[in-house]
Amino acid sequence: MVYRARSSAMNAFSGVKDDPSLLGPWVGWVKTSDPKRRAPSNLFVILDEHPDSINDGYFIATLSGFGGLTQLCDVPATYHNGACGFAFLDGHSEIKSWRGNLRSKAWQSVAYKDRHTFVPIDANDMQWIQDRQGDPAK
């Protein structure tokens, strides 16, 4: 059995200055006042990450080449009855209930092994994450 030291990850865009080579069409932020196109209430900072997906503490769902448009290499938690907790830049939090593959018993359980791989995700769930991950550059 492998134990995990933590169960959360930080949004890859949080604490990052603008770097088009890294962030693509999104803009990172350092201060609450940095986002210009998306309100702090619509940008998550920390989320529950699935224990079998924990690797680097850095969560990103939008990079091309890292799983594609409907696959994740970092997997959100599902242990809240198929849902995950998110903490936002303005201080509020939300529980997001997943659809599709992340609602399966396979992902609601913890296997205590590395399942950090490309995982298919419902397109609506991916869009929900992307809409709250970064500030659009344009």
Overview of this protein structure:
The chain is α+β, with helices and mostly antiparallel strands and 138 residues long. It has one domain. 14% of the residues lie in helices and 22% in strands. The chain is built from three helices and nine strands; from the N terminus they run βαββββββαβαβ. It has helices at residues 20-23, 105-108, 123-133; strands at residues 8-11, 26-27, 44-48, 58-59, 71-72, 83-88, 93-97, 119-120, 135-136. It has a five-stranded mixed β-sheet with strand order 4-1-3-6-7, with no helix packed on it. Strands 2-9 form a two-stranded antiparallel ribbon. The mean pLDDT is 81.
Counted by DSSP, the helix tally is: 3
Q: What would the principal axes of the Cα set say about the shape?
A: globular
Structural category is alpha+beta
The biggest beta sheet reads:
5 strands, mixed
Record field, number of beta strands: 9
Beta strand %: 15-25%
Distance between the termini: 46 Å
List the strand order in the largest sheet: 4-1-3-6-7
What's the arrangement of secondary structure elements?
Elements lengths: L7 E4 L8 H4 L2 E2 L16 E5 L9 E2 L11 E2 L10 E6 L4 E5 L7 H4 L10 E2 L2 H11 L1 E2 L2
Parallel strand pairs: 1-4
Antiparallel strand pairs: 1-3, 2-9, 3-6, 5-8, 6-7
